[in-house]
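Lecture notes, unit on protein representations.

Consider one protein chain, 127 amino acids long.
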Amino acid sequence: EVELRESGGGLVQPGESLRLSCISSSVIFKRDAMSWVRQAPGKELEWICSVSGDGTRVDYADSVKDRFTVSRDNAKNSLYLQMNSLKPEDTAIYYCAADYGDYTDDDLRDSQWFNYWGQGTQVTVSA
């Protein structure tokens, strides 16, 4: 069982930045593929980025590419999401997700593949 806890959400103005964190209870964090997924009001879950256990494979959704950066610190069991140039349409609850085992690049892009989820942190972008 892996427990995840997000933090760092808040209210920001368009164009500003925010950094989300996710800490994991995993005993072998470096093995775990990690992902950020968001859900805007009234919309479905949207996968936004993933990173492999060793950090060498990273992928982003087109909607956040060049604005968001995912990173991890395996020594601290932590995952981060640096969000720059935020837009009102980035308003959502942001979840970190994890899983382990054999996985493909397609798995990393599929929020359904991840079985462990945090409670989420709210990000609101508004003037």
